[in-house]
Amino acid sequence: MCEPESNSTAPASTPGFYTLFRTEFTLAVRRRSDIVNPLLFFVTVLALMPLGIGPEPEMLSRMAAGLIWVMALLATLLSQESLFRGDYEDGSLEQLALQSQPLYYPVLAKVLVHWLVTGVPLAVLSPLLGMMLNLGQGGYWPLLMSLALGTASLSLIGAVGAALTVALRRPGLLLALIIMPLYVPVLIFGTGTVQAALDGYSYGPQLAILGAILAAAAALAPLAAAGAIRISLEN
Amino acid sequence: MSWQWFHRMGSPRWFYQKSSVWLPWLGAAGLILLTVGCIWGLGFAPQDAKQGNSYRIMYIHVPAAFLALAGYYIMAICGAIGLIWKMKLSFVVMRAAAPIGAALTFISLVTGAVWGKPTWGTYWVWDARITSMLILFFLYLGVMALSGAFSREQSGDKASALLALVGTVNIPIIYKSVDWWFTLHQPATLKLTQASTIDPSMFYPLITMIAGFYLFYAWVLTLHTRTLILQREWRTQWVRELLEQPVPAAKS
Description:
Function (chain B): Required for the export of heme to the periplasm for the biogenesis of c-type cytochromes.
Low-confidence stretches of chain A: 1-12
Family (chain B): Belongs to the CcmC/CycZ/HelC family.
Pfam family, one (chain B): Cytochrom_C_asm
Structural class of chain A: mainly alpha
Oligomer: heterodimer
Keywords (chain B): Cell inner membrane, Cell membrane, Cytochrome c-type biogenesis, Membrane, Transmembrane, Transmembrane helix, Transport
GO cellular component, one term (chain B): plasma membrane
Largest sheet of chain A: none
Order of helices and strands of chain A: HHHHHHHHH
Shape of chain A: elongated
Low-confidence stretches of chain B: none
């Protein structure tokens, strides 16, 4: 999808992966609301859950892993819409697409930053929320690891949807509609990891599958997203 | 070997004219097979030892589920052909395949629910096969929604083709879900490489129904593609000429 241009003939002015990554990261850190809002959403809705389904500790502990995972999915989805939007609107996405280097690297840099500012804080925060929802002992570490691995896959897969819908005026619900079905395997194995740990089984296999999904997504999703960006730019 | 036929396939006009010859044959063959299969399966096939008569819903359920999955591949492959060789026609077929596939997925979900009530005692369970079929339904809806969201037709074509391709990752998971996970849904009865675990007296009507569904699918897909071609190409000379022609009396 993305033409395999050779990197050797690239002019010296073409920013490398690291430069792009640093720029993106600096930008993301300076727009603090973009980082804080998904987390705030994540925490607020999880705080509403016991009010909605009842505060019984046994029921909460049974649902904790699933609730946290579904909320992580929604928080990722919410923050995904703006992944390429700003760059599309001010034209820098077009500039990136015109460069001689494959679009794969800018996309990967953006997704990496997205994961660092949404996925990682979410995973770090998860033990606290697990405690609030009375998650069973032994579930904390698997929850943290599965979220750290899984949210990276979610960011990568979601980037394809964000790239497909970037040219549309109001993509919010459409993005959710096209991306949610693709999130399902990650959700299944993510909650499976925690469940296996809570039931006293080894959770290695599930974690390994999450890692395999991440590897496949890292190889393929930026390619698909790059193709999608080119399609969106034609629109 | 001449590649002319292959290039001609990319022309909506050529397809429209050729398919008007195939269409009656496809439709007739499909409807005959479906009628024979229905009467044979619903009226004459023996009762199942465990499920009684309720198993007969399989004669609708199994072919619909088959084609719901095959239809996704047809849609994705057409999308890929369109993206790679920039064929106009294959994008049209891709768009035509999406609502038909969604309808078949819906039929297989509904018949599955109706079958589930007498056999499992419930309309719906969150079992691997059923849930993944529901996801397939959402995948179809996503492709349909995305293809309609673009103001420029070509962008909508390419974007939904890409999404259809990305979604193919889920199809083998759906297909294999009954073998990989131990769930309520029974494992596959029909197998390509081994003997099927089904009695011939039930198997032949089922095969008839599957063949009938395939022909019916091809017929409906062709019809829908023709409609989309006319909608897209209404500005061209040949469509105008076609529309100005008096309708032949034999067809009315």
